[in-house]
Amino acid sequence: xxxxxxxxxxxxxxxxxxxxxxxxxxxxxxxxxxxxxxxxxxxxxxxxxxxxxxxxxxxxxxxxxxxxxxxxxxxxxxxxxxxxxxxxxxxxxxxxxxxxxxxxxxxxxxxxxxxxxxxxxxxxxxxxxxxxxxxxxxxxxxxxxxxxxxxxxxxxxxxxxxxxxxxxxxxxxxxxxxxxxxxxxxxxxxxxxxxxxxxxxxxxxxxxxxxxxxxxxxxxxxxxxxxxxxxxxxxxxxxxxxxxxxxxxxxxxxxxxxxxxxxxxxxxxxxxxxxxxxxxxxxxxxxxxxxxxxxxxxxxxxxxxxxxxxxxxxxxxxxxxxxxxxxxxxxxxxxxxxxxxxxxxxxxxxxxxxxxxxxxxxxxxxxxxxxxxxxxxxxxxxxxxxxxxxxxxxxxxxxxxxxxxxxxxxxxxxxxxxxxxxxxxxxxxxxxxxxxxxxxxxxxxxxxxxxxxxxxxxxxxxxxxxxxxxxxxxxxxxxxxxxxxxxxxxxxxxxxxxxxxxxxxxxxxxxxxxxxxxxxxxxxxxxxxxxxxxxxxxxxxxxxxxxxxxxxxxxxxxxxxxxxxxxxxxxxxxxxxxxxxxxxxxxxxxxxxxxxxxxxxxxxxxxxxxxxxxxxxxxxxxxxxxxxxxxxxxxxxxxxxxxxxxxxxxxxxxxxxxxxxxxxxxxxxxxxxxxxxxxxxxxxxxxxxxxxxxxxxxxxxxxxxxxxxxxxxxxxxxxxxxxxxxxxxxxxxxxxxxxxxxxxxxxxxxxxxxxxxxxxx
Length: 761
Known about the structure:
By secondary structure, the protein is of the alpha/beta class. The chain folds into 4 domains: 12-224 and 235-393, Growth Hormone, Chain: A (Up-down Bundle); 404-477, no CATH class; 484-519, no CATH class; 543-758, 3-Layer(aba) Sandwich (Rossmann fold), CATH 3.40.50.150. It has helices at 15-47, 56-80, 86-99, 119-139, 141-151, 162-185, 188-214, 237-262, 269-286, 295-315, 321-345, 353-378, 384-393, 404-407, 410-422, 424-427, 430-437, 439-455, 461-477, 543-555, 588-595, 602-606, 617-620, 649-658, 677-685, 748-758, and strands at residues 484-490, 493-499, 505-510, 513-519, 560-564, 580-585, 613-614, 629-634, 659-668, 690-696, 708-714, 729-732. An 8-stranded mixed β-sheet has the order 7-6-5-8-9-11-10-12, with helices on both faces. The chain has a 4-stranded antiparallel β-sheet with strand order 1-2-3-4, with helices on one face. It is globular, with a radius of gyration of 29 Å. Mean pLDDT is 83; it is low at 1-9 and 219-229.
């Protein structure tokens, strides 16, 4: 039985009716996309503290969102196959109303504390239980409303893909407004309430769209196909597979680029939404009737963008925030434009619209699964980024080569070049030394060669990809780190243990940030057998070293210390016999690395009985007895930034409650990109504590002894002993116009701006 409105109730086509349909459907799709993509940074920020502020939380979140997007598109495709119109409309409206039961957004009960392993699977479960239903309902709206729009009889139904651009404009604005407008201005609770109200408005809009659909003349379209005059044949399976591939590569690159840039600044919505906003902007641009950036331009620029990524990876550039953020994202934008432009160029007739979107979302999910879940468990280093760059070269359409008689020998020359460049990495010698010294130039020239092969002789994509692969292999064969490198990867990032030339030092790095170093050999080459001396940021004359000494002197005896963040275990050797030191660490691989005497001996020689408390310190440290620690040292890094949830008013309240009557909290805030000293002063002041700031070089010229930036907070001047009268420790008053960071509010953009403004970058 067909469920449809009786013919007498249907409206006849008219210009005013067409305007109403266009406006209502465009607004509904726009609002739906606005909600769909604003919920991603909003809810992920709510979840972030559960897992130490790791950038991997966003990667896993992206996998969830892309997977559920596929589910929504499949559901929409199913509804369009139902006989009649009323059934599909009724089912979808009931789903939207049912999703209201999950609002306002909140972490589901029973999901407060993560397990000791299997973080990715746990996160996927948390997202599914907490926001799965409303996100699924929103995910179906874009293809479903487009299919309904075609069946209303509107003249624009002959090519409804412009509505996809409208959807992505909403997504783009939602993401771009989050870090610049919503996050600085509203608390998480305020954002949540605003989002819930928007969802209610959307239900009314979709109800209006459904009413217009049901009142459309039946003669305009059949219920199984749409008569638009487009007689293109159905897409073949080969075309569908290419759609999936073209969607998968930029989707995977999105996660890889985001992880690359957020690792060295902060796991925060600002750095999540910038690449995702560009990703969505490409969809907006390629599906315009007259693209602002022609596809031929993007195909010409794509090899140059790939070469740009190669040069950026070879050069590094992490010391320059604008280069790190801007360079990688610009190249990503061009590559995504080329891939998505190919999708727009090969899009099918409107009758196959929902199947096209299913292929796109399936490709997006595949790319996300590879970069967000498979790669972290497969590779011990960030291999997914270069792999996806190679695959991006294969996204180019086939071209007829200009000089086939010349380029036929290219593979032979490339193989000979590969042998000449890679073999020295295993054999050593003068040629290896020269290549190691000139690695940036050699790799950059290869990247340029790949671009020339693509543009001048219009070499086939396999030759371009082969050249790109060789350039990226050299990044691994000739790493930028001096000495021997071992990598260890976990959910919380990639740690590198670097053995410097000659083996004199072992250095622990997370991303591009040094987290500890130990001298292993004396100047004469003999092993260091004495108790290791704390160096790097923990030298006795640095901020943390002075804080420990001052609290110990003030108490005139042994002290009880809590350290949040283990690193290489350096601070184990800052203790003295008879003292009680407890370490809190979220990453088991970090504990294993610090305990392994092949890498570091701080724990082995200074605290062999140490049993670090495993888990996020906001959860584990809160369970410690109140009032027992003389000094709490917060030294937990996510590469170059303290995880935000450890630098909020609520976090400082926990630290304060664990302090002994004259205890103090020392927070290590050394950072290239964020100004955090004023943040710490603000959260301390909100808890009735006074803060002092130390930011000065230790004065030593020793290797691996660094400038430190430390803030110590206490109830009274006397609690920090001699530091209160030390001119190098400046009493700090939080700026009156700077809002205190809480679990409900933080402003990364402001911290970045203050660092740039102060000229300390």
